[in-house]
Amino acid sequence: MTSAEQGNSKIKAIIRACRLIMRMNQALPEARKSEAMYYQMLINYFTRLLNARENGDFVAAHTVFFPAELIYAMDMVPMHAETTTWMTALFTGECSDILAAGAELGLAYEICTPHRGLAGAFALGVLPRPDVMLWSNMVCDNTAKSGELIMEICNCPGFFIDHPFKDSEYERNYLVGEMEDMVHFLEEKSGRKMDWDKLSEIVARMDRQIELVREVNELRKAVPTPFHSQGFLELVSSDYLFPGQPEAIEYLETLKQELADAVKEGKGAVSNERFRLMTLFLPPMHLMAFLEKISQEYGAVSVVEPFFTYWGEGRLDPTKPLESVAKKSYMIPEMRMYGPMDERALNSIVDCAKQYKVDGAIYYADVGCRHTCATIKLFKDTLNNIDVPVLTLDCDVVDPTATSEEEVGEKLEQFFELLEDR
Amino acid sequence: MKALGIDIGSLTTKVVILENSRILSSVITTSGEEAESSAKEAVEKALTQAGLSFDNLYIVSTGVGRKSIAFSQQPKAITTCLARGICYLFPSVRMVIDMGAESSTIVKLNERGRVKDWANHDKCAAGTGIFLQQMARLMQVSMEEMSKLSLQAKSSASITSTCAVFAESEVISHVHREPPTPKEEIVAGIYASVISRIMALCKRVGIEKDVAAAGGVALNRGLIHTLEKEMGFGVLVPDTPQLVAAIGAAILAEENVEKGLK
Question: Is A417 within 8 Å of B116 when comparing Cβ atoms?
């Protein structure tokens, strides 16, 4: 295998898996058209990355919650670093090679696996080398250090955006200044110019995209809920990978229509909906198929994910594109969990539980995530106070050695029995 | 139709037969390598004791081997059975601490014997019955002697609660140091380490009175004394604490019979 071929091996594996899923779904009479569109979007995203070098494209790798709108507006190829790692786990079920390589770099077992795996993947050379690395301190210390490490491993230039923790006019203006500096940096490194008109168009579409997710969320309130448990990953990825992109709008419009039709027909995502669940944080990617199977078996379905799909209030203004991108970074659902933990964050989960008629919540306590584990008791007590039981499931979003299928299955069965027996 | 509950644990199998919510018979046998055959053997013993035959029974199974027996009509989680079982024995109990051979489970329940919350510890042998057996072997005393020794201790040795292997090497160093740490202090230290793990689990779900102890380890009076000291109040212990989950399973079987389930 040449180094270029090896450098694309994980990307090729993701594309291959997406193609296979699409083919399998085509055979299913009930398959959603939007699901096929979603997998095609993923194939296109990773194929563009795969062919970037050959096409003379400029590859900008970036960490999670980074304003990828700016990368798209400069006609560069984005590479969402953490998503690439968790999609490797999701689609190939195998991450031991990149996690072992991360460990060889000296990254401790306790460090967040998407970052540990990401560093390992670049060190192994199984991901394409980016032209620049872009990162910020949003959302955690791992993210803040990860970019620096990848920049070093890949021997490429990088830019760090200092994202203020709190939200105020002063802090947003500061963030706009940081993004302006990054645009200058990218112009200098790539020789490309920022297309401000294009950025305005992207922001306008992003505003629509957020509105569409809100409309999808409204439909998910129906009993039975029309969207299946793991479908929320589609909503998450449409923002992470395709912010303000036409294909994301098309996908969400189609999904919304399908869900509206299902609601009209009274058709639920599970054949016999018994337990409506709130999902807190991310389930282990390698167990997605198993989780879907056990959910179907017990008639359980995730109806809301306050920290992943439930956008904060506000609209984006295309006439002020940079300000809007800054504003969006405070509106993202994840900000409730990773931002300052105040009454608003706690009230929002209570509101979600009531609005979506939640029977119970599953807290996926990712062992490598300080933020997630620090809030277990806080969220659990908050939900218990309104009589919503919470299952805390210790796991890892990427590493299959942290929790076995049997262990997760056993705990879920106990939890569903608890809900059934109330 | 009679209701039968069977709890297939990693060390012992427990069977309880109920009729009109009254215990007709109960047995505790050692779990064999094959869950199905040891379960059958235990059920036959319980049936003989009650003067019944295998016919006309509704069986609910629980414990680690609950899914491996073909003759059970319904497998149920240990948490559900512990809650029902302890509510039957002590209706005032709102928290039951089940200390089994290989795991510990804390269940919070309501006044109807329904699970409100639970936490379990199953990642390490530290804090389990097997760990205590191993420590007794290491100290060359029986479990009963160990219990008595702990009650005589005026202070306790410091033993880690995070890892069974580390705890073992600490006990060895206490035994071999010059002069050796008195046996009763080592035992008290071992119990304190077990109880500190249990207390962490209890605090995770929130301690609520009355508290009861279940499982084979609850027979250890010294350990229960240490638990009560940590809790700051008395803990209820059934006469045969090993049977709590099997009783719960039998109650669930009876409920299903009443619902007309087959």
Answer: no
Tell whether B19 lies on the interface with A, counting CB pairs under 8 A: no
In CATH, B92-237 is 3.50.50.60: no
Answer for the pair A113, A396: CB distance below 8 angstroms, yes or no: yes
Q: CB A418 to CB B118 under 8 A? A: yes
- Going A187 to A190 to A193 to A195, the CA torsion angle's sign is negative
CA A110 to chain centre: 21
Which pLDDT band, with edges at 50, 70 and 90, does B122 fall under?
low
pLDDT band at A141 (very low <50, low <70, confident <90, very high): confident
Encode pLDDT of B234-258 as tens digits: 999 999 999 999 999 999 999 999 8
Kindly state the tokens that stand for B12: 């012992």
Residues B13/B44, Cβ–Cβ less than 8 Å: no
Average pLDDT of chain B? 90
pLDDT per position as a tens digit, A148-180: 999 999 999 999 999 998 889 999 999 999 999
Query: Phi and psi dihedrals of B227, rounded to 5?
Result: -60, -45
C-alpha to C-alpha distance for B214 and B118, rounded to whole angstroms: 14
Of the candidates B193, B181, B185, B65, the one whose C-alpha atom is nearest the C-alpha of residue B124 is B193
Residue A245 backbone class (left: φ over 0; alpha: ψ -120 to 50; beta: rest): beta
A168 and A278, same structural domain? no
Are A391 and A408 members of one domain? Answer: yes
Whole-structure pTM value = 0.88
Q: Do B1-90+243-262 and B92-237 fold alike per CATH?
A: yes
Rounded distance, CA A93 to CA A400, Å?
Answer: 8
User: Considering only alpha carbons, which residue of chain B is nearest residue A406?
Assistant: B64
Does the CB of B141 have a partner CB in chain A at under 8 Å? no
Contacting residues of B for A422, CB less than 8 Å apart: 114
Count: domains in chain A: 2
Burial label, A54 (beta-carbon count in 10 A; 0-12, 13-18, 19+): exposed
Q: Are residues A70 and A105 in the same domain?
A: yes
**Distance between CA atoms of residues A57 and A342, nearest Å:** 43
CB–CB of B53/B47 below 8 Å?
yes
Q: Which residues of A touch B78 (CB under 8 A)?
A: 414
- Whether the per-residue pLDDT at B18 is higher than 80: the answer is yes
Best mean pLDDT range from A69-83, B63-77, B178-192: A69-83
Residues A225 and A87 reside in one and the same domain: no
H helices of A93-168, in order, are 96-104, 113-124, 141-154
pLDDT per position as a tens digit, B164-183:
777 788 888 888 888 888 88
CATH of the domain spanning B1-90+243-262, picked from 3.30.565.10, 3.65.10.10, 3.30.1490.110, 3.30.420.40: 3.30.420.40
Q: What is the CATH number of the domain that holds A327?
A: 3.40.50.11900
Domain boundary among A194, A213, A235: A194
Strand B12-19: give its sheet, edge to edge: B22-30, B12-19, B2-8, B57-62, B74-75
Checking ipTM against 0.90, whether it exceeds it is no
What residues make up the domain containing A121? 3-194
C-alpha A200: how far from its chain's center? 24
